[in-house]
Amino acid sequence: MVDSIDIFFYKDKLFIPTLGITPSGLRRVIEPIYVAELNLASLVQTMQKVIEAGHPRVESVPYSEYRKRDPLLKITKARSWKALAREGLGYAIDWRSDLNEVWIVLPEIDEKGRFAPLTTENMAWRIVRFPIDTPLEELAEFILEDIKKRTRNREEANRS
To answer: Which domain holds residue 105?
Structure first.
């Protein structure tokens, strides 16, 4: 069973990677990375594919080696994770069976323009909680609405 999904919005597409698990338990973006259109049916269908793929076991490789072949940068054609963060949005969906909840972790960019990690300081406003049995459609709809709101705000800020 998949307990988390990452969703990246970049250049009007949604990229949803398979998350592999290393022997130490770390999650790593691996192929296949699925691409969804910016609509409910496409996003839900793609999320279902990622759930079916599960979290395969992967070997540990040094981060410097992994970075050279980063599959998310390759498929998005972003120059770096910083460029991906600056021009895109990153979400996580976590099924928390220990709390009987589903969390959607909202995107945040740090002062250096990178995706910010989830911390105890920003956790209160970055996590949106849903009941554990919330349908995928409702979770996907929430993310699509948030993307619309954030991209509209970004466009308005760029015009100012």
So the answer is: 4-159
Which tokens belong to 111?
């002062």
- Nearest CA to 140 among 70, 48, 59? 48
3-state secondary structure at position 108: coil
Q: How many domains does the chain have?
A: 1
pLDDT digits (tens, 9 = 90+) for 3-60: 999 999 999 999 999 999 999 998 999 999 999 999 999 999 999 999 999 999 999 8
Alpha carbon of 23 to those of 45, 59, 116: distances in Å? 29, 7, 25
Query: How far from chain centre, in Å, is Cα 58?
Result: 19
- 39, 40, 107 from 74: Cα distances, Å: 23, 25, 21
Give CA 55 to chain center in angstroms.
15
Query: What is the DSSP code (8-state) at residue 116?
Result: P
Burial letters 40-50, b for 16+ CB under 10 A, else e: eebbbebbeeb
pLDDT by residue (tens digit) across 76-122? Answer: 999 998 889 888 999 999 999 999 999 999 988 888 777 877 777 77
- What CATH number should be reported for the domain holding residue 132? 3.40.1590
Q: Which of 51, 68, 44, 45 is nearest to 17 (CA)?
A: 51
CA atoms of 156 and 160, how far apart (whole Å): 6
